[in-house]
């Protein structure tokens, strides 16, 4: 039985393990204050005051096909959009609330347009759904760890019927998995303290999700230990920290494995600046080089990278983000062979960089800080042929190389890793 279950999960996640690279999109009313998606909680904004953003919301430049093209050009194979974030605003035409995009000046079902556009560009599609809901009257407020009214005396003693909220939450998940066609990923977020597992009626929720869309990948954030429902690990689980945003530090060399040592699909999600939701003043963008390094790091440990963009109130992805995506895309055009369908190598991580591997093809990612000869320790006798992905030029494999010996353009313009393809002998 366990093996059967395992093969079910393997079937569900095989496309995901090949895809390796996706776009995360955090978008909603919080794009108007433009101070990140937690603005209501951080600034203790009452829902009545936040209402002005609902009344104003009208993303006149929302063109999801442009978003989809940018993702595709960057080499991304899937995308996950916030259908509802913690503020409770729904980007889809839910019949369970009027707090939704179709009731704003926009008058549009933003989720449906997103799904249509990204599917049209050939990408897999996922929806992020917040378990937290700071708008719903039956979600705990006073004394909650995160609610905007958590320390507002007026909310003390206010009774809430949490089961009403659960009925609403489960009902919305049912709407998303019934009215919007095939969804490839359902990205729940997040569990904390006792707001975890069966508090959400997670077993019942997962059974309903599986009955509606048996193929769907579910992340592991329905419980604070990251165990419930997770086809994939996306952080928020012990002993790792949330988001896995620093896979270099958080994820061990062997990746994430089960008790038998079998690899478990996992995904790091990272912001391009320091905010998930649009933040106009946050210009601390990561360079294309850092993004590529994180992608290589994840793949070298059997993981995926979900890279976030936070569109603004007009519905535009910030130009800084588009520029980074475009440059990452240039690198992917040349080197995606060392990313897609690749994973952890049979060989231990070399001191000068990372290996990724796909079957009998080994890819050596050389980080330019490496000094001295590139010594393919332990490989010398086993490699038949080495060549640069850049131009297919052959590399002698009988001796170590100095990085300086590589052709000048062996490194892309971010002085990024050169890549070798090593067709390894069958016995590998
Ligand atoms: O609180 C959210 C946050 O806003 C964002 O959605 C991230 C994405 O992984 N998840 C939670 C914090 O980890």
Automatic annotation (TrEMBL):
Magnesium recorded as keyword: no
Domain Glycoside hydrolase family 29 N-terminal, chain residue ranges per copy: 8-337
UniProt keyword Hydrolase present: yes
BP GO annotations: fucose metabolic process; glycoside catabolic process
Site feature May be important for catalysis, where: 269
InterPro entries: FUC_metazoa-typ, GH, Glyco_hydro_29, Glyco_hydro_29_N
Stored Gene3D superfamilies: Glycosidases (3.20.20.80)
GO CC annotation: lysosome
Gene Ontology terms for molecular function: alpha-L-fucosidase activity
Keywords: Glycosidase, Hydrolase, Signal
Assigned EC number: 3.2.1.51
Task of the protein: Alpha-L-fucosidase is responsible for hydrolyzing the alpha-1,6-linked fucose joined to the reducing-end N-acetylglucosamine of the carbohydrate moieties of glycoproteins.
Similarity remark: Belongs to the glycosyl hydrolase 29 family.
Alphabetical list of PANTHER family matching this protein: ALPHA-L-FUCOSIDASE, ALPHA-L-FUCOSIDASE-RELATED
Name of this chain's protein: alpha-L-fucosidase
Record organism: Neobacillus cucumis
């Amino acid at each position: 039985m366990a093996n059967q279950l395992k093969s079910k999960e393997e079937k569900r996640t095989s496309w995901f393990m090949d895809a390796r690279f996706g776009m995360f999109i955090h978008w909603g009313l919080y794009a108007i204050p433009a101070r990140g998606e937690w603005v209501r909680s951080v600034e203790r904004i009452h829902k009545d005051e936040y209402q002005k953003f609902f009344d104003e919301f009208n993303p006149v430049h929302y063109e999801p096909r442009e978003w989809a093209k940018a993702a595709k050009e960057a080499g991304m194979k899937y995308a996950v959009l916030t259908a509802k974030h913690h503020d409770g605003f729904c980007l889809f035409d839910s019949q369970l609330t009027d707090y939704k995009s179709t009731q704003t000046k926009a008058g549009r079902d933003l989720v449906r347009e997103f799904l249509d556009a990204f599917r049209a560009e050939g990408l897999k599609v996922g929806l992020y759904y917040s378990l937290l809901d700071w708008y719903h009257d039956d979600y705990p407020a006073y004394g909650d760890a995160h609610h905007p009214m958590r320390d507002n005396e007026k909310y003390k003693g206010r009774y809430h019927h949490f089961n009403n909220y659960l009925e609403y939450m489960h009902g919305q998940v049912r709407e998303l998995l019934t009215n919007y066609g095939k969804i490839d990923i359902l990205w729940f977020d997040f569990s904390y303290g006792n707001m975890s597992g069966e508090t959400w009626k997670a077993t019942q929720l997962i059974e309903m999700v599986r009955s509606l869309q048996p193929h769907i990948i579910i992340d592991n954030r329905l419980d604070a230990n990251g165990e419930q429902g997770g086809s994939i690990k996306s952080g928020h689980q012990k002993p790792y920290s949330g988001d896995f945003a620093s896979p270099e530090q958080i994820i061990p060399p062997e990746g994430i494995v089960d008790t038998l040592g079998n690899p478990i699909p996992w995904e790091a999600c990272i912001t391009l600046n320091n905010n998930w939701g649009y933040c106009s003043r946050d210009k601390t963008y990561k360079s294309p080089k850092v993004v590529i390094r994180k992608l290589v790091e994840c793949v070298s440990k059997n993981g995926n990278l979900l890279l976030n963009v936070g569109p603004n109130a007009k519905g535009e992805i910030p130009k800084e983000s588009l520029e980074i995506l475009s440059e990452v895309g240039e690198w992917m055009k040349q080197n995606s062979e060392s990313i897609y369908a690749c994973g952890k190598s049979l060989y231990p991580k070399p001191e000068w960089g990372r290996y990724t591997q796909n079957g009998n093809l080994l890819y050596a990612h050389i980080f330019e800080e490496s000094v001295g000869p590139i010594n393919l320790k332990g490989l010398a006798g086993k490699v038949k042929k080495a060549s640069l992905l850049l131009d297919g030029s052959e590399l002698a494999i009988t001796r170590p190389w100095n990085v300086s010996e590589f052709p000048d353009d062996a490194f892309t313009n971010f002085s990024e890793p050169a890549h070798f393809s090593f067709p390894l002998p069958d016995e590998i």
